[in-house]
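Archive maintenance. Older records in this collection stored only the sequence; we are now back-filling the structure field for every entry so that each record is complete. The fields below show one back-filled record exactly as it appears after the update. Entries are processed alphabetically, and Iodothyronine deiodinase is next in the queue.

ARCHIVE ENTRY
Title: Iodothyronine deiodinase
Organism field: Oikopleura dioica
Length field: 122
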Amino acid sequence: MKSILEFEKIVEKFSSVTFLTIYVREAHPTDGWAINNSYNLPQAISNSDRIKSAQILKAQAANIGTILADAIGDEIEQFFSALPERLAIIKNGKVEYVGGPGPFGYDLDEMVEKLEAILKKN
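Back-filled structure field:
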C-alpha cells in the first residue's frame, strides 16, 4: 500500500467501519519486476503462498483491518482492476466507490470524503 501509516489512521478514525485489505498478486515480486521494498516477496504460485504473503503484510501493518488473500486465480484483482492497489467502499453488498488504480490514482483523501458522505446518508 502506498501509505500504510495513513491508512492505519483512517482505520482508527472510522472505528465503526469494517475495513478489509485484500492481498492480490504481488506487484514487485523478487522473482519478477523487483524493487527494493520492505516486503521482498516472490510471486505466489499457490493459495497457501498468497496467504503467507498476506500474513507477512499483517505482521508489518497490524492496524489496517482484516486482511484476506485473493485466490491464486486473481478474481478480486481482476474484478476491481486492483493491481498494484485500489480503494473501494462496499456497503450492504453494493459497490459505492472505486478509486483510481494505484499508485497514481490511489487517493486516501478522496476515499475518506466518499466514506464520510456515505456514512452521513445513514
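Update note: The domain at 4-25+52-121 is CATH 3.40.30.10 (Glutaredoxin). Residues 88 and 94 are 11 Å apart (CA to CA).
Entry marked complete.
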